[in-house]
Amino acid sequence: MQLLAQFLLRLAFGLAVGMAITSSQKVTAGFFRNHLYVTLGLTTLAAMVLAKRSRIEMWIAIAAAVLSYIGAAAWLYEAKRFGKLMLWLVGACSISAAVLAQSTVNITGAPWWTSLSVASSGSVLGLVFASMLLGHWYLNAPGMELAPLRRLLTASTLAVAAQIFVVGTGLVAEISMRQTVDASWLLFILLRWSFGLCGVLALLWMARRTLAIPNTQSATGILYVALLGVFIGELTGLLLSAESVYPL
Hints:
By secondary structure, the protein is mainly alpha-helical. It is built from eight helices and no strands. It is 81% helix and 0% strand.
């Protein structure tokens, strides 16, 4: 259950940041309002999971949920600056709860490395998710400019590249200290890297090329597949990291 809370908090963090860096001048307020309800649901469920474990992390998750609701109300009334502030606060609370929760998972490497892996994983999860949601939003508001979606795709690509560096370094360190490496572990590593990282990078490139046509509907379809790859990759990474010294 702790891995579930970790996944939910990381996703909420990345989604909040993805919305925060999206232009409120070029994207309608409904996008931010509706998807703050998503962060509300994610952080509420995370708080429920954490209730039996740690009151501090639970209350931080509850704060993120409350801020999500306040932010959604702000976007309902077109209070854009206040709404953006709420997005950043939701992200800050979510990542704080995730880092604190991660401290009890069986990862004994450098604490700063573990915290960095939480942030990079959350960024990949949330930014790709935000990209897919924004691509879908173009079906509701087809007249919007494509620049915000391109910006999110760029941010997603940078996040995946950062994650590759973080977990790649962890993988090298983990292999160097292991006396034996079994076949099942290697299969999970292969899944994590092929579909969860390299495959996602390829799909993000395909989505960007599709936008050049432009065809937002096809690009959104590609992003659905990329999101599936991210979910599988990061969940696999959580499972691997729970039994490893370093974040994988």
